[in-house]
Amino acid sequence: LPAGTPVDLSNCEREPIHVPGSIQPRGVLLAVSEPDLVVVQVSENLADLVGVDPSDALGRRLPEVLGVAAAGAVARSASAFGDLRERNPVEVTLDVEGSPVPVDALLHRAVVGPDDGVSPPTALLVVELEPARGPRPFSFPNTYQAVRGTVGELNRATSLQELYDITAQAVRELTGFDRVMVYRYDADYNGEVVAEAKAEELNSFLGLHYPASDIPAQARALYEKNWIRLISDVDYRPVPLRPALVPSTGQPLDMTFSTLRSVSPIHVEYLQNMGVRASMSVSLLRDDRLWGLIACHHYSGPHAPPYATRAAAEFLGSTLSLRLVDRAEEGEVHRALQVRSTLAWLTTATLDEDRPLADTLLGSPDLLDLLPADGVAVHLQGHRGSRGTPLPEATAGAIAAWAAARHEDVVATDSLPRHAAELQVSCEVACGVLVLPLPDGQYVLWHRAEARRTVDWGGDPHNKAIAEREGDSVRLSPRKSFERWQETVRDRSEPWTAQELAEVGELRTHLLEALYARSRSIVRAAE
Ligand code: BLA
Predict the structure, then answer these.
(1) Between the CA of residue 85 and those of 106, 185, 198, 455, what are the distances in Å?
(2) Which residue puts its alpha carbon closest to atom 30 of ligand 1?
(3) CATH superfamily of the 12-328 domain
(4) Phytochrome chromophore attachment site domain: which residues (predicted)?
(5) Cα–Cα dist 437/75, whole Å
């Protein structure tokens, strides 16, 4: 979107937040070409920290702008082997009009094309400087000890909730934010606050849900690449880069990995509506995908923990993610083994051609051991049978016919009322169904009852965005109320998981083989 385009309902997810062309004023930014270290872009506030005007810096070499010692430290770090960002912060002392000014230099490279897959991509070295806060040299032992203690606790934790709680508490102690939350996504990227450490006087957000649109898709994609961000003062004035575009490309600088990146004005308004003065969030990833965030708020004023403290919080976030994956995988492996043995038993048993298939599948173990559901109904080789909550035969037949008409191997829905209202099936019995349609009207059908639950939202999610008319255009602004808002979810069962669908797909293959084998023996017997 061209600069100045109002963000509205149609383009919210398209707001290009990685190229804002400006920074937050807690530091300054210089983009330099390599290897000559010539400054090609700077933030307009350069003089605030470095004491040199932007017009005097552009086109000059870094040593002339930052001084020989500081530029040397930056250049050494930039030329060392490996990932540049892992060596941040580089501790540098500037000489500003004769006085030493300690700063944290945060380095990364931004690709500036051509990114055509043919020519090698070129990059600019981006140097961001933040005034050093806290003790210098940075008190590594203290932070290391705090982090090591927490990692030990995480390793000893025995439940997910404990993992979340330890992390929230530790990040709060480390960073000093008024409130630290572990925010976990569901499959649709709606989020829930699953742990919270907060100043006593604050009301609790624990258990509140927030809709997916509060953190749109492009922001989530950016947070999968760059794992931490700080808005140290929500009431800041963005500082533009000069010149606005990278001279060699005519494109804006890609600020995906920039520490000072100016954030979306819509999000700033959201935080202001929430009464938040400073916000930080750390990505929580599983297999490179975002599963949640550690979200931090400060209310009384700006808050800017030093870079090294933020990096320690980021480290705790990735430790939490690893521990969580371990635990989840333990559970999944255990369940998968059980399912495999049930599946093996059932398919072996189907080889006994003297026993009707329906009896075999509803014997012991049965199809409910394979897949948790309230009931299962089968119609195979003229035999009908069921286990668990019974489903009237006509109802089962109607659902199976509906499923067969979809011409898929496995048909699943967690809401018949939404997806097949015409069947008029009572949600008390079968709200969600998983059907294996088989030849000649035969079927296997699992059903789950409605899982009615109440969800506490942080504000009305259906009214989450308020459209406001501004002249000719409609501008989107985030909702203004974050009061607890209760919703009762009806007409839905527990969802069928991808894992369950895959396992049932395997069963189907075996069943088709068994049915085929039996039809051949009948033919042979007749000959
Ligand atoms: C970003 N939204 C975010 C971020 C969070 C939230 C944590 C990451 C940036 C940060 O660290 O502050 C949301 N913050 C929350 C939630 C809680 C919280 C849910 O503390 C709960 C306690 N937001 C809207 C609407 C739009 C929107 C309607 O409400 C879009 C039209 C956009 N949110 C939006 C954008 C970003 C964002 C664009 C990215 C900000 C950036 O990184 O530039």
Answers:
(1) 7, 27, 31, 40
(2) 12
(3) GAF domain (3.30.450.40)
(4) 159-318
(5) 66
Q: Does residue 2 surpass a pLDDT of 60?
A: no
Ligand 1 is surrounded, with C-beta below 6 A, by 12, 15, 17, 181, 191, 193, 205, 210, 213-216, 219, 229, 231, 263-264, 266-267, 270, 279-281, 293, 295, 297, 458, 464-465, 476, 478
Backbone angles phi, psi at 156, to 5 degrees: -90, -15
Contacts of 70-79 spanning 24+ positions with Cβ under 8 A: 70/94, 70/95, 70/103, 70/105, 71/37, 73/105, 74/105, 74/107, 74/127, 75/37, 77/105, 77/107, 78/34, 78/107, 78/125
CATH number of 350-452+491-526: 3.30.450.270
Comparing 12-328 with 350-452+491-526, is the CATH topology the same? yes
**pLDDT tens-digit readout, 224-239:** 999 999 999 999 999 9
Pocket probe mutation, ligand 1, options 267, 299, 485, max atoms within 8 Å of Cβ: 267
In the block, tokens 């470095």 appear at: 50
pLDDT given at position 474: 56
Residue to probe by mutation, ligand 1, list 194, 263, 270, most atoms within 8 Å of CB: 270
CB 465 within 8 A of CB 9: yes
Model's pTM, two decimal places? 0.83
At 288, which amino acid appears?
Answer: D
What does the domain layout of the chain look like in residue ranges?
Answer: 12-328, 350-452+491-526, 454-488
